[in-house]
């Protein structure tokens, strides 16, 4: 048996603009997905998923994914979770040169699905690492990041940036620009996450920004302004200037709103955090619904979010400097 875990992430800055080659800074957070893989004596693959913030599910199949019986109760769970887990298992089996080997795989996650916290990347990263190790193959974190990116890219029909998978595999704060990803220095960042209980449709939101950018010069300039802001954010990170990071997060949220990707629930949580004294707050990920991230080392923001009707759950999730790790 092999067990691996990998962290989720928030975007400190730069989502959406990163799609057009501007830099972004995702940060790994202390909330993880764990995957346990155990080789079987037959060629069946059995996947059991728990706590994916939706109903747990269990699927057993042998042979190609197309022949897989649809036994899960909730199709959206299958769509959101199963394709990523499947992709990770298949890639690790191929890498280990054992494409037909049977496995029992259990997935547990502390991360809401499709809410801007990189849950799918964390599952894929931990899934590749655990399955590969169970099959006798040790990969370093950069290799895991690379293979996990390819799985996400395939599952998301070519619409994936390297941000989530790199950050989840390596931990810490990262700078992502085009195909280049590097870990950067960061002070301890007291992240607080607010979750509205919903999800955004990343594909539709990205397409919406693309259309806006093509139609209006202001939208193209907004994307460039986000890039400028991220470059300033990198200096603030380097200097450990948390106040400046907060101010830039506030501006980043305003620019994302101008691009039409915020939502009433996200704005309500952002304002609740600001009024509670957070140094800054913004949506994280594609928007439309899901999560916001604020910076506050006190309990004021989690408490205020707890009283905000639009917030289903609030939790502290500090920067996690560790990426994928062995848990067995
Ligand atoms: O919602 P998430 O965590 O999948 O983030 C999407 C980030 C975008 O910049 C909107 C798209 C991308 O692939 O970078």
Strand order of the largest sheet: 4-3-5-2-1-12
- DSSP helix count? 9
Which spans have pLDDT < 50 for at least 5 consecutive residues? 61-75
Give the C-alpha Rg.
19 Å
User: What compounds sit in this structure?
Assistant: (3R)-3-hydroxy-3-methyl-5-(phosphonooxy)pentanoic acid
Question: How many E-type strands?
Answer: 12
Alpha-beta classification = alpha+beta
Strand content: 15-25%
CATH architecture title of the largest domain: 2-Layer Sandwich
Largest sheet, strands/sense/barrel: 6 strands, mixed
User: Roughly how much helix do the residues carry, as a percent range?
Assistant: 40-55%
Taken together, the total number of domains comes to: 2
What distance separates the N and C termini?
8 Å
- SSE order, as H and E? EEEEHEHHHEEEHHHHEEHEE
Pfam families: GalKase_gal_bdg, GHMP_kinases_C, GHMP_kinases_N
Domain GHMP kinase C-terminal: 235-302
Protein name: Mevalonate kinase
Binding site for ATP: 112-122
What does this structure look like?
The protein folds into two domains: 2-184, Ribosomal Protein S5, domain 2 (2-Layer Sandwich), CATH 3.30.230; 191-316, Alpha-Beta Plaits (2-Layer Sandwich). It has nine helices and twelve strands. It has helices at residues 75-95, 119-134, 141-155, 163-170, 202-215, 217-239, 242-258, 264-275, 300-306; strands at 2-13, 25-39, 45-50, 57-61, 103-109, 173-177, 180-184, 191-195, 280-283, 291-295, 313-316, 325-326. It has a six-stranded mixed β-sheet with strand order 4-3-5-2-1-12. It has a four-stranded antiparallel β-sheet with strand order 9-10-8-11. Strand 9 (280-283) and strand 10 form a beta hairpin. Helix 1 packs parallel to helix 2 (119-134). The longest helix has 23 residues, at 217-239. 52% of the residues are buried. Residues 61-75 have low confidence and may be disordered. Bound molecules: (3R)-3-hydroxy-3-methyl-5-(phosphonooxy)pentanoic acid. (3R)-3-hydroxy-3-methyl-5-(phosphonooxy)pentanoic acid is lined by residues 15-16, 18-19, 116, 118, 160-161, 163-164, 202, 206, 285-286.
């Amino acid at each position: 048996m092999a067990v691996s875990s990998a962290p989720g992430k928030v975007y400190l800055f730069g989502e959406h603009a990163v799609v057009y080659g501007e830099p972004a800074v995702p940060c790994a957070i202390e909330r993880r997905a764990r995957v346990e893989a155990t080789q079987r004596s037959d060629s069946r693959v059995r996947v059991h998923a728990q706590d994916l913030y939706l109903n747990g599910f269990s699927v057993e199949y042998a042979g190609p994914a197309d022949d897989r019986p649809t036994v899960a109760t909730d199709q959206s769970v299958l769509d959101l979770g199963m394709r990523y887990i499947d992709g990770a298992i298949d890639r690790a089996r191929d890498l280990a040169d054992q494409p037909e080997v049977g496995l029992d795989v259990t997935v547990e996650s502390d991360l809401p699905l499709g809410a801007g916290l990189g849950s799918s990347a964390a599952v894929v990263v931990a899934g590749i690492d655990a399955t590969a190790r169970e099959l006798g193959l040790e990969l370093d974190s950069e290799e895991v990041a690379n293979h996990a990116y390819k799985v996400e890219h395939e599952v998301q029909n070519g619409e994936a940036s390297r941000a989530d998978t790199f950050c989840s595999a390596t931990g810490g704060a990262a700078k992502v620009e085009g195909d280049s990803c590097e870990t950067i220095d960061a002070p301890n960042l007291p992240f607080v996450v607010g979750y509205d209980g919903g999800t955004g449709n990343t594909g539709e939101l990205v397409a919406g920004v693309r259309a806006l950018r093509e139609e209006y010069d202001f939208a193209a300039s907004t994307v460039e302004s986000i890039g400028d802001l991220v470059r300033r954010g990198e200096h603030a990170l380097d200097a450990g200037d948390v106040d400046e990071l907060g101010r830039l997060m506030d501006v980043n949220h305003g620019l994302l709103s101008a691009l039409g990707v915020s939502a009433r629930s996200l704005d309500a949580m952002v304002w609740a955090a600001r009024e509670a004294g957070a140094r800054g707050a913004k949506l994280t990920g594609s928007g439309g619904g899901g999560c916001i991230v604020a910076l506050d080392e006190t309990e004021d923001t989690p408490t205020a979010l707890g009283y905000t009707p639009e917030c289903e759950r609030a939790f502290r999730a500090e920067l996690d400097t560790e990426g994928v790790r062995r848990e067995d």
